[in-house]
Amino acid sequence: xxxxxxxxxxxxxxxxxxxxxxxxxxxxxxxxxxxxxxxxxxxxxxxxxxxxxxxxxxxxxxxxxxxxxxxxxxxxxxxxxxxxxxxxxxxxxxxxxxxxxxxxxxxxxxxxxxxxxxxxxxxxxxxxxxxxxxxxxxxxxxxxxxxxxxxxxxxxxxxxxxxxxxxxxxxxxxxxxxxxxxxxxxxxxxxxxxxxxxxxxxxxxxxxxxx
Length: 211
What we know:
Blueprint: E1 2-8, E2 13-19, H1 28-56, H2 66-69, H3 72-97, H4 101-131, H5 140-173, H6 177-209
Antiparallel strand pairs: 1-2
Helix pairs in contact: 1-5, 1-6, 3-4, 3-6, 4-5, 5-6
C-alpha cells in the first residue's frame, strides 16, 4: 500500500510516498546469488587442495602409499552413503514443492542420518591411519590427503549442523518462505559436496590405490 505524506519546508510543501507493505528483508534472488558466489569461492578452495594433492601425492618420504593404506571397500560404503543422501535430499525438495511437510521432514531426517554415517566412517578411517603411524605428519602425501579429505569432512559436518537447525525451524514454523529459501541453499551446498567427493574418490582413492 502506498500512502502520501506532506512535509512543509521554508518555501513550499513537499510530497513523498511510503510503501507500507515493502519487505525490507533479503530477496530470494539476492540470497541465491550470494550463495552461488560462496559456492564458487568454495570451489577455489577445493581446487587449491586438489592441486596440492596432485603435487605432493607421490611424496611418500619412504613411507606408505595410498595402495598400502586405502581400504576401498570402506570408502565405497562411505561414498554410497553420501550419494544416497543426495538422493534423499532431492526427495525432500520434491515434498517441499508439494507442501508435504511430514514427508519432507522424514526425507531430511534420513539425509541427516546418512550424512552422519558418512562422517563416522571417515573418522574411523582417520583414526585407523593415525593409529598405525600414518598420520598427517608422516609425509607430504599424507599431509595433503588429510587436509583435502578432512576439509570435505568438515563441510559435511557443517551441513549436518545446518540441516539439524533447519529441521527444528521447520518443526516450529512450517514450510514458510524463509525456510524454503534456506532449504534451497542447503540443497545446493549438499549436492556440491557430493560432486567434490566424487572427485576425491576418483582422484585420491582410486588413482592412489593404483600407485
